[in-house]
Specification:
Order of helices and strands: HHHHHEE
Distance between the termini: 122 Å
Number of domains: 2
Radius of gyration: 33 Å
Structural class: mainly alpha
Shape: rod-shaped
Number of strands: 2
Oligomer: single chain
Number of helices: 5
Strand content: under 5%
Length: about 160
């Protein structure tokens, strides 16, 4: 019976060792997830992307063995894939006023948006243009009638009815 007892003891010892290894793996997986999250947060604050040591080591190893194909991009891996928006020469509010002045009276917001794209190279979202138009309307610089926008008339230009 001693052989069976030895096997049972060895099995118990291996089961305990396996449980310790599994707990260690879980702990390391959690730490890795925390580090990945910290890296994503820090990459948003960093001025330029730097090659991490892990990636550099992998690239050196791959170059020594075989040619490297471009790495597949991960989705949701931060803002690395986007281009930084260029500083516009003219603010949206001023460009909107110039567009309405150039296009004349009773122009639609879509016509203004197309004009801004062609003349100033500005790709403007419709809701942003709408906010700029409404700011000018509240400020008395633009007026809206039946969905068309025009320059507001000054008080001296308004005809008085007697």
């Amino acid at each position: 019976m001693s052989t069976l007892d030895d096997i049972a003891v060895e099995r118990q010892r291996l089961a305990e060792r396996l449980a310790r290894v599994d707990a260690e793996r879980t702990k390391l997986a959690e730490q890795l997830a925390e580090l990945d999250a910290a890296e994503r947060v820090l990459s948003r604050f960093a001025p330029a992307k730097a090659v991490t040591p892990h990636r550099a080591r992998r690239a050196r190893t791959a170059k020594a063995t075989e040619p490297v194909s471009p790495p597949a991009r991960r989705r949701g891996a931060g803002r690395g894939g986007r281009k930084a928006a260029a500083k516009q020469a003219l603010p949206l509010g001023d460009a909107t006023l110039r567009a309405v002045d150039a296009l004349g009276n009773n122009v639609s917001a879509e016509q203004i948006r197309v004009y801004l794209g062609k003349q100033f190279g500005m790709q403007v979202r419709p809701n942003h243009l709408g906010m700029a138009l409404q700011r000018h309307r509240r400020g008395g610089r633009l007026s809206e009638h039946d969905g068309g926008w025009s320059m507001a008339q000054a008080a001296s230009e308004v005809p008085t009815s007697s």
